[in-house]
Amino acid sequence: MTRLTASLLVFVLLLSSCGGRGSDSGLNPFGWFGGGGNREQPVSLIPDDGTIVTNLPAGIPQIVSARWEPLNEGRLLVATGLAPTKGYHDARLVPMRPQPSDRLSPDPDGVLRLRFAAQPPAPDSQAARLPANPAVDSITVALAISNVELARISRVEISSATNIVSLNR
């Protein structure tokens, strides 16, 4: 008798989870494999094309050099630039057009266009009044690019405020 009662109780609980307010729960067997009827999709604040636009810092005035370094699963793009004063910080290579945050893709012509950017020092700071010494105040940034991303890229162009450096893949 207890086996019959226990199995009926389990059956009733499973059946009750299929309808009503519990239909969206994980106990609903109709939703276990992607079914579940007409559930509304959550609203996302990310644009449909997946791009994320951020406030870009100012460009470095001059790029001195750029080179490729080998990696196990791609290449490391290394760029060095000079700023007019000391105190530039948060340097990075930023895509010229908005892109998904987790991958890089070139323009339709196969060229990946990047900007060498950094935050300048506060105008009233001591560092903003000191001129940069090119021998010790160069700014170097790097960007890892995977083999999958490199397959679509034919050339990389890195721009600054005054010049553009181009590297072939």
What features would you describe in this structure?
Residues 1-22 form the signal peptide. Keywords: Signal. The protein is an alpha+beta fold and 169 residues long. It has two domains: 2-31; 62-168, no CATH class. Helices cover 14% and strands 31% of the residues. The chain is built from three helices and seven strands, in the order αββββαβαββ. The protein has helices at residues 2-16, 126-129, 147-150; strands spanning 62-71, 74-82, 89-95, 111-119, 139-146, 155-159, 164-168. The chain has a four-stranded mixed sheet, with no helix packed on it. It has a three-stranded antiparallel sheet with strand order 1-2-5. Strand 1 and strand 2 (74-82) form a beta hairpin. It starts with a helix and ends with a strand. The relative contact order is 0.19. The model has no long low-confidence stretch (mean pLDDT 79).
Write a compact overview of the structure shown:
The protein is built from three helices and seven strands; from the N terminus they run αββββαβαββ. The chain is α+β, with helices and mostly antiparallel strands and 169 residues long.
